[in-house]
Design a protein that fits this description.
By secondary structure, the chain is α/β, with parallel strands linked by helices. It has 10 helices and 7 strands.
């Protein structure tokens, strides 16, 4: 399936609006936040929740829903922003970000409607998703399980144990999207622990894999609409992205994995993103 020009612009604008809401939550909290990975994944979240996932904001626990599992849980604010625009929560609720007793913090909590994994320690989302997907296969349910992973977290051993199991059990209802922004919190992934050739690694574990531009909403939509890529195989989408996408002074810089920006830089962030929406 392909998007027309109006649909493409709507999704692009929605991704940037989600970046603005996320930045506002970070700034108003006074604590900063995970700008880098949140901004790199904005289009992935936006396309998933606005055209791919079968979900019901009025009934988040609907039995027939597709499941979305956020494994890289430190981008919880971006997920919450997308959920807000999709109607799961109110935008103003996110302004309680990182406050005492708030459901909205640096990692996902089960207090947020539509969130299914309390993610903190990285590397466990695929195993969790594997269990859901296997149950669906055994019960002959037709809904699917999508999981978003970071490229830094897939250095963790449990990721590859889960990948091996998913291939063994032919879970073609399981789809992982990897936010391939090339940075973790300490530097470039290829300097710290090389991952390439990443597509070949996933294929060797019995997956069907494709690489896409993670900021191209049309390419994301077309690719996500075509899963499973092969019957009897789980699908892996490697989404090539830019850490801190949309903000010139953040893009590609690992030190914005988590950051607190001053008022001037915050105003610059919002101005850059608003300009992208207007163009």
């Amino acid at each position: 399936m392909q998007l027309n020009k109006d649909q493409e612009k709507k999704l692009k604008d929605l991704a940037n609006k989600s970046r603005i809401l996320t930045a506002k939550a970070f700034h108003e909290s006074g604590m900063g936040g995970h700008y880098g990975g949140s901004f790199s994944s904005a289009e992935i979240f936006t396309v998933l929740y606005n055209g791919i996932l079968q979900v019901d904001p009025k009934n988040p626990n609907w039995e027939g829903r597709d499941h979305f599992i956020l494994s890289k849980g430190h981008v919880a604010a971006m997920l919450a922003s997308v959920l807000a625009f999709r109607g799961f929560i109110k935008e103003e609720d996110l302004m309680k970000y990182d406050q005492l007793d708030s459901a909205y913090g640096m990692h996902t909590t089960l207090k947020i409607p539509g969130v299914e994994l309390a993610a903190g320690s990285l590397g466990h989302g695929l195993s969790f998703s594997l269990g859901i997907a296997l149950e669906k296969k055994l019960s002959r349910k037709t809904s699917r399980v999508f999981v978003l992973q970071g490229d830094g977290e897939i250095n963790a051993g449990p990721v590859w144990e889960a990948a091996m199991s998913a291939g063994k059990y032919k879970l073609d209802n399981l789809i992982t999207v990897i936010d391939r922004n090339m940075c973790n919190m300490e530097g470039n992934t290829e300097d710290i622990m090389p991952l390439e050739p990443l597509e070949d690694k996933w294929r060797s574990f019995g997956w069907s894999a494709k690489t896409v531009d993670g900021h191209n909403v049309s390419e994301l939509y077309e690719t996500l609409s075509s899963v499973p890529f092969e019957n009897g195989k789980p699908s892996c989408i490697i989404a090539k992205t830019v850490k801190g996408k949309g903000i010139d002074f953040m893009e590609g810089k690992f030190n914005f994995h988590h950051a607190k920006v001053n008022d001037k830089d915050y105003d610059t962030c919002v101005a850059c993103l608003e300009k992208n929406i207007c163009e």
